[in-house]
Specification:
Layout (H helix, E strand, L loop, with lengths): L5 E6 L14 H7 L12 E5 L5 E4 L5 H7 L14 E5 L5 H4 L12 E5 L1 H6 L6 H5 L5 E5 L15 E7 L20 E7 L4 E6 L7 H9 L2 E5 L7 H4 L21 H6 L6 E5 L13 H8 L2 E3 L5 E3 L1
Parallel strand pairs: 3-4, 4-5, 5-6, 9-10, 10-11, 11-12
Antiparallel strand pairs: 1-2, 1-13, 2-3, 7-8, 8-9
The structure holds D-malate (MLT), manganese (II) ion (MN) and zinc ion (ZN).
Amino acid sequence: MTDLTYLRVLGASAGGGFPQWNCNCANCRGVRANQPGLTPRTQSSVAWSRNRQDWLLFNASPDILTQLRAQPALQPARSLRDTGIAAVVLMDAQIDHVTGLLMLRERGTPLPLHATPEVLGDIGSGFPITSILGHYCGVQTHPLPLDGTPARWNFLETAHMDPLALSSKPPPYSPYRHAPRPGDNIGVTLVNERTGRRLFYAPGLAEISPAVWQAMQAADVVLVDGTFWTDDEMIRLELSKKRGLDMGHLPQSGPGGMLEHLKRLPSTTRKVLIHINNTNPILRDDGPERAELTAAGVEVSFDGMEIAF
Ligand code: MLT
Ligand code: MN
Ligand code: ZN
């Protein structure tokens, strides 16, 4: 076995997926028509492993069953009933990150679930997934402390996760939607102690706070919020009245945007966007926005992408 760990992208899209079931924007129409340069993507989830048999799942998307079928590594088939999902970490309580938990109800043992007390509160009451699962496999909840304590799992051996509170938004159904708390959203640094390499993962970032910037600078790979190209993307397409920032997502382009920050990172840092909304022009492999990213050394993630570190 090598010293590497593996991060697998199960779903590179934001909530709704690509194409989104009810959307006929140019991107969604194009991908439905198999237009060259457009590739479907499922909803936001990644998994991390050392042995490629036992995985730490980040987020459980509504597309989880499709994702598991597409990724045989997550079904190692060591016994009659088996799964490669050893535990789940939630980045927030958004629908696109938690609904898939219900699809895991046939497990034989309670599902180990790691999330902040704020997220566990939202999915215990407003959208009571953990109580519903109590009638099926059950859930073993582990509140994630945000005090700098690293989180560890035996199956990851000499690797750990450092969670970081982010400034973003809890989901629309949360009683705290308009009064966000630290812990509603987290980013995580995944550390492989054997190689000393670090990956920073944050699919929802409203702001590059000093702590986030520090984590990005310390990382060898950043896998960050790629939801919108422009802040008014949904408004311009007349799909919503909300700006990206109202939804807790910093756009890529423009002053203070994600791209400006990514360009300030060392050229040796691998820079990858994830949680890409179906309206985002960077989904076009041959478009000018993608060319701008490529020139800046920034990659756009896709389902099945694997990052070894
Ligand atoms: C978000 O991150 O804002 C979403 O993708 C929301 C959703 O899942 O509806
Ligand atoms: Mn989302
Ligand atoms: Zn669309």
